[in-house]
Amino acid sequence: MDELRRDGILWYKIHVFVYDLRNFRSSDKSRDRLESVVDTYYIGPPYFSATEADNILHTIADPETGKILREILDDFFAQKLEKRIKARTKETADYRVCAAHDLAPIVEKAFRIHPKDLAKNKGFVKLLNKRGLGALSEGGVWKGLGKR
């Protein structure tokens, strides 16, 4: 986790990913970025390179169990998601993963990102709206959310 935090650009992109998961329905830009992801775990372009995605998926996401993010997502897709899809399909005929309700909590917990802190961080939201996902690569500055 510390290695990811030290890479300011990658840490910013992780936060953009979380922001987009939470704002999929309310932000066209968030929706466009998420809908372009083709990775099974949703951890891939346009957010992350193959190397970045591999590092993220191999990050210990649950210190208590020692599980990496890939294992947690595998468990989710294999068990919980199957039940949720069955229930949702009966009710709405919608089988898709819900970014805000299904994936966001997993990623937020894994990276200890609090969605309200992210949404309230005016500097982050302004930078994202003005310069997008590549903001830091293009010279933008973001100092993080601060410590809780």
From TrEMBL:
It comes from the Eukaryota. This is Uncharacterized protein. It comes from Trematosphaeria pertusa.
